[in-house]
């Protein structure tokens, strides 16, 4: 069976770059999206499109058929936004309570971190083919130090709690995995609702890639390098069942040596 890589979250910032990198490598790509029209426009018939919602397990089997690896780039915002899909909209009194009583706001939303980054990841894992070669998951720096600044602020609405549970669902499934925890995402496509997006913060392609273990490093991470790490990891058996952080720091070499970076992680 030839390789077929499924990309849930392909219409997002990292997801679009993952698709482009996979195509550059000559791999067959199937994307999972809730919005076929948007995806058709975006990918110009270069990928197979499966329509599904990771919150709804019944929509997932068509996307999984013959899939050999998954690179999961789904996510929602860490703080309440329209991406949380409020129904009904909270009233002014409830918004006023948001930081003291996050559950009140969450109970009115359908696409929160707990749902997208944990429950829906569990759905993906449970629907995945039994012989899946790799599940690559984009998680986040800070999962291992949720109580330290600035991650305690980032986790105000539970995004790091949810990512941690999502990671655990993947690890406990027995499926070979690679979990990548980027720092704050910069470089386009700018799809988030945060300061880096507002300011269009970029590395200018000048910063090196630094990988870490044990959730100790800090910094911004280029979406371009996060996407490259997701795709490259498929080609390196030594990075199977590894969790690592990724940030950009220092002077960029002419070529990123993924073999060297991954062996540092697998040997540490
Ligand atoms: N922003 C940061 O600083 C930061 C830092 C560390 C880690 N991360 C993580 O990095 C990853 C990529 O971030 P990004 O900014 O590139 O993401 P993004 O642009 O916000 O894209 C999110 C993707 O998830 C999809 N999605 C959301 N809910 C879904 C659902 N219920 N069913 C199916 N698909 C769904 C969206 O599809 P639609 O087009 O249908 O909405 C979109 O393609 C995310 O996991 C994020 O948590 C972000």
UniProtKB/TrEMBL annotation:
InterPro entries: NAD(P)-bd_dom (IPR016040), NAD(P)-bd_dom_sf (IPR036291). It holds the Pfam family NAD_binding_10. Residues 9-235 form the NAD(P)-binding domain. It comes from the Bacteria. This is SDR family oxidoreductase. It comes from Okeanomitos corallinicola TIOX110.
């Amino acid at each position: 069976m030839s390789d077929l890589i499924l990309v849930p979250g392909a219409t997002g910032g990292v997801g679009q770059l993952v698709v482009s990198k996979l195509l550059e490598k000559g791999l067959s790509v199937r994307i999972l999206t809730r919005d076929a029209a948007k995806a058709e426009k975006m990918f110009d018939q270069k990928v197979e499109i499966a329509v599904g919602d990771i919150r709804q397990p019944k929509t997932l089997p068509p996307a999984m058929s013959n899939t050999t690896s998954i690179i999961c780039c789904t996510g929602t915002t860490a703080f309440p936004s329209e991406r949380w899909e409020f129904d009904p909209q909270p009233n002014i009194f409830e918004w006023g309570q948001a930081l003291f009583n996050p559950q009140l706001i969450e109970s009115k939303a359908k696409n929160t971190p707990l749902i997208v980054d944990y429950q829906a990841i569990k759905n993906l894992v449970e629907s995945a083919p039994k012989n899946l070669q790799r599940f690559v998951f984009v998680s986040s720096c800070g999962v291992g130090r949720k109580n330290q600044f600035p991650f305690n602020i980032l986790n105000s609405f539970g995004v790091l709690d949810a990512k941690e549970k999502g990671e655990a669902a993947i690890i406990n499934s027995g499926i070979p995995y690679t979990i990548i925890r980027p720092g704050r995402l910069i470089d386009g496509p700018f799809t988030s609702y945060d300061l880096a997006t507002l300011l269009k913060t970029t590395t200018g392609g000048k910063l090196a890639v630094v990988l870490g273990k044990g959730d100790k490093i800090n910094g911004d991470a280029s979406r371009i390098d996060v996407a490259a790490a997701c795709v490259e990891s498929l080609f390196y058996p030594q990075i199977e069942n590894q969790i690592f952080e990724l940030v950009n720091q220092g002077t960029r070499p002419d070529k990123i040596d993924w073999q060297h970076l991954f062996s540092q992680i697998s040997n540490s």
